[in-house]
Write a structure and sequence with these properties.
Length: 505
């Protein structure tokens, strides 16, 4: 049979329909978060975010099983509204004759001529570039001189001085800069990046170590992978991961080709799943980021389901008047709301737990606004079974200023284990909760926006903290929502919406 044979076409259509039916019926597969169109993508790092001609373009790592050595490529989707995505042809693939054997992390920028340019790590080769003159960015041409920054071999200049992977490039006046992920050499302890400069994106000069790490902020096991460096308000931000601990960021000063971190914070804590961030600036001047949400199922479970690879919701980053970071879900997400429910304000006292039967669901947004009073702890329970065999607890503790997601009973599946470290760490003990620092000012109300999307939970707190989590309830009736309190507090408003599905894959 040939691909154009009517019988073959019908068989392919039937196979696609069966796969789609299977994916839509999967109780863990998200409905309005972006999932990998290719099925299983491990890793699924977002890369090359670029706003171009009215569309948000997002590139990402996936694996082509028809290619050797892992088959790491860059896929490509775009959206006009940050909600509904279309798939483009694969942007970057290792091909015969290329110096690289795989495509790994990098970013996108417009060069001096306004041409969209991808800067990426070519596995086994070094830093490479590709450009597109296609208005839809469907066709990319790799530079004939790749790698433009080769991996220095033993005995070559640069060997033992800097690492060559995970580039982030930008144009500053008439000079290009790129920082590369690394650890302080030669002992390879603590995180840093290495700075290079160029006039043409092709010929690069090593400058120096871009910033000095602070051992009080980061540990010797950490690196600075997937770096993303940009101006935010009157400060500069270095958004990155460490492979051991996930998404994190520095805020500080940038001057004389050096970054001077003034503070360090995390977007992921032990037990969490927020990894490999990437951001862009749109035509409204908004800094919008995504991150890969790690999958906590076993490899056998992922392959049996036929899918893995999910992005966070798009988040807007900005600075508060005091120079601290604000993290908010983008306004466009309100367009997915359906079936609005609300509960009028009421008082809470003592040891209280209230079931909220009108708020049941696994694909919804919940907005909670309350005055915490003298409550020692207050919060929501989601994905609850009727007798609490399964439940996930979202709690705020006034005593220790912590936002906690308790996972002790989030799933009856013993194969689901949440770990202290993300990846790349030998000793990785299990944990049953993720805790993030979060403090309310005196008299400040507690405002949460909680996004549930089957196996994904994202909790935004007062637009200055966000915790990302995976949960895999096994029971079909684990859909309940409850409010609990230890002490006296007042619910000012409580609203919920079902969220319309957008994931076409």
């Amino acid at each position: 049979m040939t691909p154009n044979d009517p019988k073959t076409v019908q068989e392919l259509i039937g196979c696609a329909r069966r796969l789609r039916t299977k994916l839509l019926a999967d109780p863990h597969r998200p409905r309005y978060h972006l999932c990998a169109p290719e099925g299983i993508a491990l890793p699924f790092d977002p890369n090359g975010c670029l706003y171009w001609r009215g569309r948000y373009h997002l590139f990402y790592i996936f694996q082509d099983p028809n290619l050797p050595r892992g088959g790491h490529c860059w896929g490509h989707v775009s959206s006009a509204d940050l909600l509904h995505w279309i798939q483009h042809p694969t942007a970057l693939t290792p091909a015969p004759g290329d110096p690289e054997i795989g495509i790994f992390s990098g970013n996108a920028l417009l060069n001096k001529d306004g041409v969209p340019t991808l800067v990426y790590f070519g596995v086994g080769a070094g830093i490479c570039i590709a450009t597109s003159s296609d208005k839809d960015l469907n066709r990319w041409t790799k530079h004939s001189g790749n790698p433009v920054i080769p991996i220095p071999r033993e005995g070559e200049p640069g060997h033992g001085l800097y690492n060559v992977h995970d580039p982030h490039a930008w144009l500053e006046r008439d000079t290009y800069y790129v920082i590369l992920n690394g650890k302080v050499l030669p002992k390879k302890e603590y995180d840093t990046t290495f700075l290079f400069r160029s006039r043409d994106l092709v010929h690069w000069q090593y400058v120096h170590q871009f910033y000095r790490p602070n051992p009080e902020w980061t540990g010797p096991e950490e690196d600075c992978a997937c770096p993303d460096f940009f101006k935010l308000g009157e400060r500069h931000m270095l958004l990155a991961i460490s492979h051991a601990r996930g998404t994190r960021y520095y805020l500080g000063r940038y001057e004389n080709e050096r970054f001077h971190p003034e503070e360090h914070h995390r977007m992921n804590w032990p037990g969490g799943t927020c990894f490999a961030p990437e951001s862009l600036v749109d035509d409204c001047g908004r800094r919008i980021m995504w991150a890969w949400v790690l999958d906590r199922r076993t490899p056998e479970q992922m392959h049996a389901s036929g899918w893995s690879g999910t992005m966070t919701l798009p988040r807007r980053l900005s600075l508060a008047p005091d120079g601290s970071l604000r993290i908010e879900p983008v306004d466009e997400l309100r367009g997915l709301r359906t079936n609005h429910r609300s509960i009028e304000g009421f008082q809470l006292s003592g040891e209280t737990e209230i079931d909220l039967p009108d708020l049941r669901g696994d694909c919804m947004e919940i907005a909670l606004d309350l005055a915490p009073g003298n409550a020692a702890e207050i919060g929501l329970k989601v994905r609850c079974s009727p007798h609490r065999e399964e439940e996930t607890v979202i709690a705020y503790s006034m005593a220790n200023n912590r936002l906690r997601i308790d996972l002790a009973r989030s799933s009856l599946d013993a194969r689901i284990v949440h770990r202290t470290f993300c990846i790349h760490h030998g000793d990785n003990p299990a944990v049953t909760a993720q805790e993030a620092p979060f403090a309310l000012a005196p008299g400040e109300p507690l405002r949460w926006r909680v996004f549930l999307d089957r196996s994904i939970l994202e909790v935004f707190a007062n637009d200055r903290q966000c915790v990302t989590q995976r949960l895999y309830p096994t029971r079909a009736d684990s859909l309940g929502v409850a409010l609990f309190c230890r002490g006296n507090a007042a619910v000012r408003s409580l609203e919920a919406w079902d969220m319309a599905p957008t994931n076409p894959w």
